[in-house]
Amino acid sequence: MDLGVGEVGTPGNSKPHQPSGQISHLALDIGGSLIKLVYFSTYDDVDDETGRSATESLSVYNGNKKYPALKGRLHFAKFETTKINDCLEFIQKNQLHLGGCQHLQSSPIDKTVIKATGGGAYKYADLFEEKLGICLDKEDEMDCLVAGANFLLKGIHQEAFTYMDGQKEFVQIDHNDLYPYLLVNIGSGVSMLKVDGDGKFERVSGTNVGGGTFWGLGRLLTNSKSFDELLELSHKGNNRVIDMLVGDIYGGMDYSKIGLSSTTIASSFGKAISDSKELADYRPEDIARSLLRMISNNIGQISYLNALRFGLKRIFFGGFFIRGHAYTMDTIAVAVHFWSKGEAKAMFLRHEGFLGASGAFRSYGKRGLDDLMLQLIQQFPFTASPAGDI
Ligand SMILES: Nc1ncnc2c1ncn2[C@@H]1O[C@H](COP(=O)(O)OP(=O)(O)O)[C@@H](O)[C@H]1O
Ligand SMILES: CC(C)(COP(=O)(O)O)[C@@H](O)C(=O)NCCC(=O)O
């Protein structure tokens, strides 16, 4: 099985792979900023070697257990929540909601039921029913985040990686030594969960300064028209123009007694108070850089403090705020490394933004999907295709 990856709804992004086989198990995560979709499609092609259709029911054995071989692809797509109509149109056009999973016992008669999580599963339930005639079967957001993280960490080769000094290093996940870990999901807001096993977790903290804060404040301060534009600006900026550094306060010197170098940020945006400058006098690039650094640093620090609270050494960061963005990951990793004195490790996920949707997808397992997934993972290891537009 491989991972078809793409996104729609934002200009300039790659289109999702158009499924040619049979589609099933559409799952949604409707968040404060983005709607994430995960769905499965079988290949509709012919196997070169056997000449048989790849969707034909072949049998393979694992130990004594017989499994039908099914070739397929997991698809990932995302839309801005404000453009929910584009998402509905995409589902409708590709008939994503019609393949399988109809008439769950818990559903009203004759309604197609789709697994959905996130606040929007409640907020937009009527809209989905009205526009697509489907009923959203709501799964708890925290349950889905954890289920999705465990599913991806265990099922996908090279899902997790560290990022330090511009170097990405994949982490080998030992299934028997995965727990406990801290899961930090940076969506519109931030949730921090201590994960002790499959379905065993506690939400230990959160912060309202998250991805929505970066995008919201960034939009107001820089006039950026899209999240990508804001990220792009941050690439070219210099935060020292706006941030007050230790050296600015200490006349260029380190404050070595407490371990602060002259280049450490003493106060994010602090220079803006001492300057007689207006907003328009600052370059949007510098503002974007300073904002990204402030928010990433703060999340890294709170995450470390929570890891410390529970003696956790591994912190996995998910959520679409990260976007595989080098500077974001670097800032978070440095914050965790700095505060933990190298004791704790920040790790990132290739399918960072799809944890909740993957968890909702996996929740079809209650109706036998786990078996299907198990077969697929065993027979067709996930390919190392990147997630989102990383
Ligand atoms: N194309 C985009 N449009 C808006 N926000 C984006 C985009 N790409 C990444 N983001 C960032 O991701 C955050 C949302 O992350 P996500 O994990 O989807 O959370 P939620 O479930 O709250 O929507 C946004 O607040 C923003 O910081
Ligand atoms: C309310 C939420 C769980 C919603 O999830 P989201 O759409 O942001 O992914 C999240 O925004 C959050 O955890 N906010 C932080 C709230 C707090 O603990 O202060």
TrEMBL record:
Alphabetically, the GO molecular function entries are: ATP binding; pantothenate kinase activity
Name the enzyme group at the top EC level: transferase
List compositional bias (Polar residues) regions by residue number.
Answer: 11-22
Q: Name one GO cellular component term.
A: nucleus
Catalytic reaction equation(s): (R)-pantothenate + ATP = (R)-4'-phosphopantothenate + ADP + H(+)
According to the UniProt record, where is the region Disordered? 1-22
Q: Copy the pathway line from the protein's UniProt record.
A: Cofactor biosynthesis; coenzyme A biosynthesis; CoA from (R)-pantothenate: step 1/5
Question: Which biological process annotations from GO are given for this protein?
Answer: coenzyme A biosynthetic process
Q: Which InterPro entries match?
A: Type_II_PanK (IPR004567)
- E.C. numbers: 2.7.1.33
Q: Mind listing the UniProt keywords for this protein, alphabetically? A: ATP-binding, Coenzyme A biosynthesis, Kinase, Nucleotide-binding, Transferase
Q: Which NCBIfam families match?
A: panK_eukar
| Protein name, UniProt field | pantothenate kinase
